[in-house]
Design a protein that fits this description.
Blueprint lengths: L1 E4 L5 H7 L1 E6 L2 H6 L6 H16 L7 H14 L6 E12 L3 E15 L2 E2 L4 E5 L9 H20 L4 E9 L2 E10 L7 E11 L4 H19 L1
Parallel strand pairs: 1-4, 2-9, 6-7
Antiparallel strand pairs: 3-4, 4-5, 4-6, 7-8, 8-9
Helix pairs in contact: 3-4
Length: 220
Amino acid sequence: MQTYPLSQLTEETLNTLVTLHEADGDLEVWEEMQIALTSEESIHLDYITSDAHRHHRTIMNEATIWGRAIYPLLRLAEQNRIVAWAGVPLKATYPTFELEGEADGALAPSVGGRIEPPYLVVHEAKRGVNAPNPQFQLYGEMLAAAWLNWKKDAHTEQTIFGCYTITDDWTFVHGVVGGIESEKPTLHIEFSPRYNGVLEAECIVQILKSIVAKYVNVST
């Protein structure tokens, strides 16, 4: 059985492994997936966005942008046991292939300081003319996370969320993985609109909070 590094996944490779269906999501659905911020969260968000206006993020490296712009927004969505993580290892063994690698970040349960299978995975896109398309690595990360969740609850279909960021821009992805025990699983993908991490930071956090709330409601 061949193991595919997440960092090297391409559209062609994914199409040999899974049946992929992609679509732009309904704008109204994403608008409904928004939970209002508390006053404390709003204060933290104001600090994050004011910091963004003081610095030129377009020339900062990825690690700096992650620490100043992406991870702080993820932390605002923490609830109960759901924690924002960075550098999340992922490994999945499907019937005909394996996936292995690391997601840049995730929102996932914490038990005794250990991470459990994630519900949302985050991929920070590399920049440059020769940088790979971030979507396909994110799909692989979502497939790996869905398999880990399936090992935990064995539901026939696994719903998994992801997002990829390009500097200040966020795009969310809603995924449903089916046929996990089949030779060629299915992956249904729907995209959100693109959100700007400065001008639409509140909307981003509202969506993150809604995604976390869905997980908490299912788990309780």
